[in-house]
């Protein structure tokens, strides 16, 4: 289906476009979306009024554009080229209206291929044939069939519900219903630096990301081991010490979290934040240093709320508070601003052997923005997970036991998760298969 959308836009490949993700209300993470979807279907009507198209197929770039392509891998120059000239050329624009429905069948759905085809036809008939005086064999119950049905329109007067009447409004209120594109790099065959530009376009949405706190790598200097609270998982087992250091990154959007074992004995649990090294230009009007955003606010779970306490190994020993931590002042569509994560801290409530590990998050306000979409991600980064599998065999003794209790895989979203600018707006600790884990809530913002 993604390839079908790409062909309509004149592009090759199976990487989903933003329009594809938007139409099916996907999260943008290919792995997450594919894992949750059994089948896709669509139906509808397309009413083009006119089309503006470049007549010549033999397109040439101006000499000044060709001269601007850097001959070597120079990120600032490549970024300047993309900013000045873009990544694609629009080759056609179709104006008119379209009325479509999109269907996602979830893996829990028991409908067969023939049943889903009939189901799509029934919904299409109800939507497009205006069957007010006809009854279907049974009412359409989307939830019971474990499918998601999405109706989309472009062009015309969307306040007109009846499809046939809506069609007559397209000519007075047309809209762009399709565009085709041509990659700039396809017009640079034989040009020095084309491979560097192609790679830069692929990384266009990726800004440099760094982890906080930064590692201490000063030769001859060993950081003194701090005094930390600890957790115990059994009567004779090793203790896991908990770093209570507050990690904050200021006005740098956070894109990921991870748990880490630190110290000379690798027996101290810490929380790390991945954040953008520089503030994206789209953020500057909202979050530049001169913009007043108010003081950041710490949020954490209630100490006495034992509903969220979950044992790590045994009921009589260490527990984890699994309460989700989110800003209570942020709602989807709230015009007053958005609170995003800019800091984190682990802590321990001392209840003797039943001490409870908990997480606190620091939230900073981004005024003038709203939340477009939010999603909880329970899938760790596969690359880092593989890296951990490769290195875990080198750990031994008590350290090995602690490594088996802490899941240190990275939870993050990046350019591979279309549209590539997810930010952390919440998180929670958990216990999965006897391991302490961290799970993250990501959001897309409207700027």
TrEMBL record:
GO terms for biological process: plant-type hypersensitive response; regulation of salicylic acid mediated signaling pathway. SMART domains: MACPF. Residues 1-218 form the MACPF domain. Pfam families: MACPF. InterPro entries: CAD1/NSL1-like, MACPF. GO terms for cellular component: plasma membrane. This is MACPF domain-containing protein.
